[in-house]
Write a structure and sequence with these properties.
alpha/beta; seven-stranded parallel β-sheet; binds iron/sulfur cluster
């Protein structure tokens, strides 16, 4: 996801991840190159099997010196990077996970999902206008899913909202949502993996300019494996996809996600 690991690829060194459960079901075309699937297949595991991990209670685990094990320098905890926090299979475990989140106001939990239609029914009873320490974002790969998922996200009581356009599989315009003033940050990036589909740099620039127009922080997280610039298509190795995006020099502002 990142948002799954696809969306989380740029995991910052100071941040930490918490995966209370692992495994996911593909839900849209943005899932085709899901890194969780790629990695699990490589290790002979079934990625669609959702199970609770040993790290389930990590936010409340303490070490021998009685301090919390989960204490990232920048307080950011990327939550559920190898699953989807709102996946149905985790319904029985989520209340407890929310309790752990609520018990750590010193941390900022970032949840990115492709299932915003399940959020309302999956919020804890004391959620009210949203926990102060939780940011929720949607990941979208196309205009169709942007329209569907962002509308749903905007209708929910969430204090901090973000959008990750990743993998970007076509032009995606967000002006109408950015104009609401409710989106705190936007990120975008191309698709990785052996079957990576093309991401056109012109789409990235258009989205960046929309964010500039509305003063919404923007980050270009990675080029993806096949980048189109003008008439040329470049195949970019996995190890260069983040650095090449950085070199584009089009990021601005503080982005919550990625
Ligand atoms: S929602 Fe994310 S983790 Fe789940 S299959 Fe799709 S890309 Fe993978």
């Amino acid at each position: 996801m990142k948002i799954c690991e696809a969306e989380w690829k740029e995991a910052g060194e100071m941040s930490e991840t918490w995966n209370p459960w692992h495994g996911c079901k593909r839900i849209s075309s943005g899932c085709l190159s899901c890194p969780v699937y790629q990695k699990d297949y490589r290790y002979g595991r079934n990625p669609s099997l959702v199970f609770r991990t040993k790290a389930f209670d990590l936010p409340v685990q303490k070490n021998r010196t009685h301090t919390f094990r989960l204490s990232p320098e920048d307080h950011l905890v990327k939550t559920c990077t190898t699953s989807d926090f709102f996946i149905e299979e985790a319904d029985a475990w989520r209340s407890e996970a929310w309790r752990y989140i609520h018990s750590r106001p010193d941390l900022d939990f970032l949840i990115i999902t492709k299932r915003p239609e399940r959020i309302a029914q999956a919020l804890p009873s004391d959620w009210d206008d949203g926990y102060e320490n939780v940011s929720i974002g949607v990941s979208v790969e196309s205009q169709y899913n942007a329209d569907r998922r962002i509308r749903l996200l905007l209708s929910l009581p969430v204090r901090k909202l973000s959008v990750a356009v990743e993998p970007m599989l076509g032009p995606v315009h967000l002006s109408r949502y950015l104009a609401t003033g409710k989106i705190d940050s936007v990120s975008c990036g191309g698709e990785s993996g052996p079957y990576a589909r093309i991401c056109d740099f012109a789409w990235v620039l258009d989205l960046m300019l929309e964010c500039v127009r509305y003063g919404v922080p923007f980050r270009y997280t990675q080029t993806g494996g096949r980048l189109k610039k003008g008439d040329q298509i470049y195949n970019i190795g996995e190890e260069y996809q983040i650095t090449q995006a950085e070199k584009a020099g089009i990021n601005f502002g503080e982005v919550i996600a990625v």
